[in-house]
Design a protein that fits this description.
about 625 residues; Dna Ligase, domain 1; 20 helices; about 35% helix; about 15% strand; globular; binds 2'-deoxyguanosine-5'-triphosphate; binds magnesium ion; DNA-directed DNA polymerase activity; DNA/RNA polymerase; DNA_pol_Y-fam_lit_finger_sf; damaged DNA binding; DNA/RNA_pol_sf
């Protein structure tokens, strides 16, 4: 039966097509993606004393989310438990997956919810493909994923839905319903394709819902879990006396399961519903007192309306109009937009705090660790897969990982901040200090080298940029004590698909070509042998030169001075300047120990001089 609700609620604008992703066993999947052998084992992720999630194998053996470790070990003694308290790997995986999904929405309306859920508004892609359909041969359709290149896409059968469905589709649909059905079929095939790609390329499976709003797509994705997808079928509005599939679907949900109806609201609504259900049907009083309250109960209560809901829920701390908002949600209506993909963060900042940090070597060690995290975050947040033309990927001179990525933006400013502890008072006590001091410099261009390992770049960044900044903040060798170090990059300048981003790729590709004459194949050679092969001066002819060793070697000899930073910088600089005149990396630096200014290439030898002093 159609309910007697406000007919205007059922008026729908142009229906959007929204796909909601929820990754299966997300935290566990992050560990499995890094080490696929774990998939065959019962795997659980621990935070504090509980399992926050576990993989399918573990679930098959009786484990579940939010179980006590003790209990899990009892149920499944051979469970493999990994620690999941450091969220970095989950954050990084989440962003990487988000970036993959983002490419499928031409409008960039792709929004993350927490770490493991994503909404993608793919209306534009669907409408484009709707027009391409040949209605007399739907089974042999081609789904176009690019407006510019008709060959990019996949073959599919547009006469039927991909995956599972919820609801009954009318045997005699009216025109609008038939169009929506066809668009949902397209959405289901796009979702299927995206799921397959996520699994093949990244190793993640997901549970997916396809519908016309965030609310419905999220809820319908739960119907078949895990590793599956569900489409909510039309009709989305009542037809004659026939209730819509949306109403049937929403009606069975516990009130607390409806997104945006939080815990406090749920309690108020449940209390009201129980009270009034009891009053309205004395025969069922006991049953009504204890049973769960579903949407149908509330919606069908006598006199229920947006105004009554406002009375029940309104009050201090509640936004005005809460009644209307909840009223629409109870009818499965949600017009909220999928947020536009926020392309780039404003800055990337990594920090750590310390009980006691008061030696130069300690600082240097910590800065290398922070630099490594920073560089990894930059790669996750500021690069994307470069599938433009495959040109880079085919170039053997460029390392494979870097070759498939490109920068979305370049941060221009590098900042080091420290939080010094206040000196001790005469009685040994100490004031708490929250003051930070900071110094900035330009981000060196070597940091954009995607073909170099993050470890090597972290060492270089520390030696050539962060330690000199540190020395400016704390010129004395000792006498200070730090409770925090923070390294950040900011002032992002976006690259565009055709200009700087590609040009930088080109720059490194050119660079790799130039360096190739110096390169010998990877081989197991002891470090001493390698170092001996490096020329003594920049003027030496480079006939027998191995790939430059940039890592600062504290125990090396004067003969082992690697290819200097200066020569690299200036070479890169020249090519960079061809493309972008604005970037001018400083070519000199100052010693973190004595503050002496000198060119980059002199720094390693100079640092060894200090070491020999100790
Ligand atoms: P699923 O979606 O049922 O296959 O399993 P998950 O593991 O993806 O669970 P989900 O989607 O509810 O949450 C995503 C991740 O968030 C999950 O892998 C671990 C974490 N998480 C979920 N619930 C809690 C919680 O109550 N506390 C904490 N600390 N973490 C949680
Ligand atoms: Mg999940």
């Amino acid at each position: 039966m159609a309910s007697g609700r406000d007919a205007s609620l059922l008026k729908r604008k142009d229906e959007r097509i929204i796909i909601h992703f929820d990754y299966d066993c997300f935290y566990a999947s992050v560990f499995e993606a890094a080490n696929p052998a774990l998939k065959a084992l019962p795997l659980a992720v621990q935070q504090k004393q509980i399992i926050v999630t576990c993989n399918y194998e573990a679930r098959r053996r009786g484990l579940h989310k939010l179980q006590l470790i003790k209990e899990a070990k009892r149920v499944c003694p051979d469970v493999v438990i990994v620690l999941g308290e450091d969220l970095t790997c989950f954050r990084n995986a989440s962003k990487e997956l988000y970036n993959s999904i983002r490419r499928y929405s031409w409008s960039s309306k792709v929004e993350r919810l927490g770490f493991d859920e994503v909404f993608a508004d793919v209306t534009d892609v669907i409408n484009y493909n709707l027009k391409l359909l040949n209605t007399s041969d739907l089974s042999n359709s081609f789904f176009c994923l690019s407006q510019d290149d008709p060959t990019v896409g996949f073959a599919f059968d547009a006469s039927k839905l991909a995956g599972q469905a919820y609801g009954r589709y009318s045997a005699t649909p009216h025109h609008d319903e038939a169009i929506l059905y066809q668009r949902l079929i397209l959405g289901s095939h796009l979702a299927f394709h995206m799921r397959v790609q996520l699994e093949a390329q990244k190793g993640y499976t997901s549970s997916v819902g396809i519908s016309t709003s965030k609310l419905l797509s999220k809820l319908v994705g739960n119907v078949h879990k895990p590793h599956s997808q569900t489409t909510l079928l039309p009709p989305y509005a009542a037809v004659g006396f026939e209730q819509s599939n949306v109403t049937t679907f929403i009606d069975d949900h516990d009130i607390g399961k409806i997104p945006n109806i939080g815990f406090k609201m749920t309690v108020k609504l449940q209390d009201y519903a129980r009270q009034n259900l009891v009053n309205s049907d004395s025969a069922d009083q006991d049953v009504n007192k204890t049973r769960r309250t579903v949407v149908r109960d509330l919606r069908k209560l006598p006199g229920m309306s947006n105004l009554l809901l406002e009375k029940i829920l309104g009050g201090p701390g509640m936004p005005h109009g809460v009644g209307s908002r909840v009223w629409t949600l109870l009818h499965g209506i949600d017009d909220t937009e999928v947020g536009k993909a926020r392309e780039l963060p404003r800055q990337i900042s990594i920090e750590d705090s310390f009980g006691r940090l008061d030696t130069i070597l300690g600082v240097q060690e910590q800065l290398v660790i922070l630099s490594l995290s920073l560089i990894n975050r930059m790669h996750v947040d500021l690069t994307e897969e470069d599938d433009s033309d495959g040109e880079m990927a085919q170039d053997d001179d460029v390392k494979a990982v870097g070759a498939r990525k490109r920068w979305l933006a370049h941060p221009k400013t590098l900042r080091l901040s420290t939080r010094p502890r206040a000196p001790r008072n005469a009685d040994g006590s100490r004031e708490r200090s929250f003051n930070r001091t900071s110094k900035s410099t330009q981000v060196p261009s070597f940091l954009y080298d995607l073909a170099e390992s993050a470890e090597v770049l972290a060492d270089r960044l520390t030696t050539y940029c962060l330690m000199p900044l540190f020395r400016q903040l704390h010129p004395e060798n000792n006498g200070w004590e730090l409770s925090l170090l923070n390294v950040a990059v900011s002032d992002l300048v976006e690259t565009s698909g055709t200009s700087t981003g590609r040009d930088i790729s080109k720059m490194f590709k050119n660079q790799a070509k130039h360096l190739s004459v110096w390169k010998v194949p990877d081989q197991d050679v002891p470090p001493e042998t390698q170092l001996a092969a490096v020329p003594k001066s920049e003027d030496t002819p480079r006939t027998n030169v191995i790939e430059p060793i940039i890592k600062y070697d504290r125990t090396g000899s004067e003969d082992s001075i690697p290819l200097s930073q200066a020569s690299q910088s200036s070479q890169w600089q020249a090519e960079w300047n061809d493309e972008d005149e604005e970037n001018d990396e400083p070519l000199s630096s100052s010693c973190p120990f004595c503050g002496a200014a000198m060119p980059y290439f002199a720094m390693p030898a100079h640092l060894r001089f200090h070491e020999s002093e100790d």
